[in-house]
Amino acid sequence: MKASLTFHKLMVGLLVIYLLIPLVGTLLFSIAGKWDHTILPESYTMKWYIELFQDERFYDAFRRTLFLIVMSVGLSVVIMLPTIFIITVYFSKWEGFLQAAAMLPYGIPPIVGAVGLIKVYSDGPIQIAGTPWILIGAYFITILPFMYQGIRNSLRTVNAVQLVDAAELLGATKFQAFRTVVFPNIISGILVSTLLSVALLFSEFAFANLLVGGRFETIQIYLADKLNSSGHLTSAIVITYYSMILLLTGTVLKLSFRKEKNPVVSNKNRILSLFKKQYRHKNTALEGEK
Amino acid sequence: MSYVTIDQVTKGYENQVVLNNISITLKKGEFATLLGQSGCGKSTLLRSIAGLEGVDAGRILIDGIDITNLSPRQREVGMVFQSYALFPNMSVFDNIAYGLKMKKVKNIKSRVKKIIEMVDLIGKEESYPHQLSGGQQQRVALARALVMEPKVLLLDEPLSALDAKIRKSLQKELKRIQKELDITTIFVTHDQEEAMTMSDRIFVMNNGQVVQSGSPSEVYTSPVNTFVAKFIGNYNVYDMEVFRKIVRNRELKGTEVAIRPEVLQLVSVGEDSLDLQENWGIKGFIKDVSMTGNVLRYEVETEESAFHVDYLHHRGKMFEQGALVHILVPKKECIIL
């Protein structure tokens, strides 16, 4: 038993090292002065960060990326949440169609999708090729699988159909049932989907480069551009936006913990349980009736 | 005058008929049970009464009002689900008060408090569903339905997820509360023992139809067909042709015969006291003995067939496996189907 536990710890430790090494390497490279023939840098400097933070282009790229992400993810939540709820609860026979549609992005390589989108939207009634709007549309589709799976799984986990039935029998309208019963119970799932989507879109390059390129420089395009000038600077960019994602994720999670009405169930555990696909509605205490 | 009327209700999914022309009437305050195997349509009928499923034909009336086309929230029925369907984001108090808040009722606090006392959940008001045991969750679900003072209470296998001891205790409590409030109740279960214990009237369902209805005693002692005999009472059921050979009587009419296992008697071969005026005597041997706690179940093999015989489990009074016996079959207890 003990040996098996040690083995598990060892495996997890190795995995963590494997995952962290590139990140630690990037961090070290971003603060390295001279680093040629040694394992660790010979000298350290912050000049790459100073150079980065003095560059207006970086801030502009970051702002544009945030704008794209907020618009795409926000639009996705506003459109997909009611759609998935209505189909799951009231039109379950159409669920297969929605699932197939949500999986489509996996079947279309970004380059094919981008070329198609440019062709369709470069003339005709909606001429948005080359503008950020086409990128928002493409991002909406890109994150569709995450949003769909996350929201649908949350709805199933809380048994939304039965909760709505129960609420309606108690006098709630369909909208009241959704607002007061379903939504508060799936918010963790929505949050997880949103965070996954944000993380994915932050590192998205193919669509950004092909659809808008330098006309609407995002952080990834800025990064690609800087790759040619200095590896140290590129590392500083990567570490900066990685830290920002971490900060953003942490803030969102922290805010949602504070909003948690139920003092006993930690939202953190709920989010983790969503990942583990565990049903948390279990009998945990006070077993045994009189 | 009937309080609940289900009049020729029919429902189907695609090509399958789930409810086939069902008609049921209930008096006010009656505790009725829909009893049947999985897939017989009992839960669909309950959900149709609640308005959670539509019906293809027929009418449903409660207290003289046709509710067939009303939405669930307009029907004034309460329902307790098998999986409780408590709202995980709300405390016990908020769960129970939910319906009252939706209907903007006054005196919410006092009404909730009263019902919490009734279902014996004092002290659990601020607990969340996941902090309660299965039995406690079920009480919350019951309280949540009862606080609305529904015209009809619908219970969809509410006790099936609980262990035997808690189930028995909740059966009694449910019955007590139902009598106390004099609330018309429709209970769905596949457990015939539970149906017998709780009901004023049982409706046995099979293939979307009510095949028999009556008091628990009527349904148990006078099954109308083989399905009911086998489902509700573990009857010995024989084809009449076979039974004529077993009892060596050519004059018996009917197509099948059903005999309850507890009316049969076993007498060791060699004993003289066989009453063959009132009984048929059949020779056989004990093939198997099994025990279900208070009942001993013998499987007796005869020349033509096999019988199940149930005996109360008395200490020391037991037939051994392989023993030669006479089965005494009381003639008046043979139910011709």
Automatic annotation (TrEMBL), chain A:
Keywords: Cell inner membrane, Cell membrane, Membrane, Transmembrane, Transmembrane helix, Transport. Residues 62-250 form the ABC transmembrane type-1 domain. The chain crosses the membrane at residues 12-32, 66-91, 103-122, 128-148, 186-212, 232-253. InterPro entries: MetI-like, MetI-like_sf. PROSITE patterns: ABC_TM1 (PS50928). It is a multi-pass membrane protein. Belongs to the binding-protein-dependent transport system permease family. This is ABC transporter permease subunit. The lineage of its organism: Bacteria, Bacillati, Bacillota, Bacilli, Bacillales.
From TrEMBL, chain B:
SMART domains: AAA (SM00382). One of its GO terms (molecular function) is ATP binding. InterPro entries: AAA+_ATPase (IPR003593), ABC_SmlMolc_Importer (IPR050093), ABC_transporter-like_ATP-bd (IPR003439), ABC_transporter-like_CS (IPR017871), P-loop_NTPase (IPR027417), Transp-assoc_OB_typ2 (IPR013611). Keywords: ATP-binding, Nucleotide-binding, Transport. Gene3D superfamilies: 2.40.50.100, P-loop containing nucleotide triphosphate hydrolases (3.40.50.300). This is ABC transporter ATP-binding protein. Pfam families: ABC_tran, TOBE_2. It comes from Fictibacillus barbaricus. The keyword Lyase does not apply. Residues 4-232 form the ABC transporter domain.
